Amino acid sequence: xxxxxxxxxxxxxxxxxxxxxxxxxxxxxxxxxxxxxxxxxxxxxxxxxxxxxxxxxxxxxxxxxxxxxxxxxxxxxxx
Length: 79
Prior knowledge:
79 residues; mainly beta; 3-stranded antiparallel sheet; 3 strands; 47% strand
């Protein structure tokens, strides 16, 4: 996600007008038994925690040139 306007490229002029969720899904942690853990190339990490992932669409406008555009943003929440 950029802070620049894609039209005039002025910095810090982006304004989010509206935001709405597009897609929600769950990421469950992977469970490793002794056999699977031994074959794993890396150790399971905190990244494998249970998460709810929400993808938003943001409706943006430039404060300088008034250009309108949309962006997508993905946010992870702990359950």
